[in-house]
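Review form for a predicted model. The reviewer records the input and the model, then writes brief findings.
Reviewer: anonymous (R2)
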Amino acid sequence: MNQNTRQQIRDNAQYLRNVRPLDPEELHEYVEGQPHPAVVKQVLREEAFDLGIVEQDDGTFVPAPEGRLSVNFDGVERFPDRYEQQVIDLLTEWGGLEWHSGDSGDELRERIRDIKERYLQGQAVEYDELTALGYAVYHLPDYYAVAKYVLADLAADGLLPSQLRVLDVGAGVGGPALALRDLLPDDALLDYHAVEPSAAADVLESLLEDSGQNVRWEIHRSLAEEFDPSSPLVGDDSGGGAGNDSGGAGGSDSSGGADGSDTDAEGYDLIIFGNVLSELDDAAATLYRYVKALADDGTLLALAPADRNTAIQLRTVEREVADGGPATVYGPTVRLWPHQSPDSESWSFDRKPDIEVPTMQQRLDDPNGGTGEFVNTDVQFAYSVLRTDGKRKHDVTPDRGIHAPMADAENYVTDRVNFLGVKLSHDLAEREGANPLYLLGDGSQKVDHFAVLTEASILNEDLRKADYGDLLSFENALVLWNDDEEAYNVVVDGETVVDRAR
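Model under review:
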């Protein structure tokens, strides 16, 4: 198809989109040479995001909804069967029907052990086909659940538009991609770009092939450090794939992705760094560069496993980019006090209910004696949400006449004070019967602050009931220094009032 034909289809669609549904059977008559209606339909699918149209079940196209994205979400109980079956199909292609037993099962189990050991030792992992399959079996289900929880929260906060342009950096085998695709209503538009240089891209490509007609996607096989998120895509004028009939939805960017992404001057609505910061040589510099590719009201989401090293590294990178760079922290570690930034260690992570054990993990684990070594159903994660428009999840500025900043804690040890703080953990008490313990932060703390609930009452029950990331108001809390932990304890007793702050 020549460019003139494509442009004529675009022009006619642009003219008629607000008049009546766009019918390829009608539209082809207005184009020079009258290309087949199937050709017109394919162009409309490929250009849907730029034209702001969505395809209906009858094959016609209508204007896409505008405004903020609204999603229905009620938690994640299990990894969807259809995705698990797709992974099992890939495993079967690799190792046969009995991929989980015999030599193939032993090889896969040993590779997963090696991945976990290298991760714990902070060593690089070589991403070949077997490694990618190991990640898909062991990590894809919980990564999917994590991404779905966080993305649903972003949508609930009104941070995602109905016509959504996404860049997924270090996309791996597809946790965020699948979660995002499942969250979207049928009439939403998704222009999804993945940056993934390894064999994991092959798994991702396979999982994306059945995307709906209102999803356009492309995989750029490039290192995150080499990919240019601010440059327009060069080469093929098709704009990538557009659903089931796209022949792999545009496939991979064979140029290596260094020529950039299919974005315009407005930038991306959402950029995701999912469990990849720990693998970058200079995570802060890389994140800094990608932040500048956000739309004016765009969001950058960084995810990390909940283990100590990666969760703390996430906060370190967050501070380099947000407290001295182009972004601000939307959440969860909101900077409540102007011109203040934290220096505390802040091993902070959220936790959601476990998902059901995927069948593929159970199959791999059973020949090993059913020890649980190859079962991964925990949904625990650290995350950071950055923006460039100054918007914060809690748009509150404390009053020094009422609230004490955590930065000044050494001045009021043994005193009772009032302050605002974000709840940054679930109960951290290590033994049964111990006083509940929660990490707090107001964005100014120099060392960690922990709320210790020594005497529960109706006046302070919000400390226990509040969700991770909620803003709390403390009245008459006793502040003590804990030598053992080298941290401040905020004692919440019968004289303390704790309320969710609005």
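Findings: The chain has a mean pLDDT of 91.
Further findings: The domain at 3-63 is CATH 1.10.10 (Arc Repressor Mutant, subunit A).
Recommendation: see findings above.
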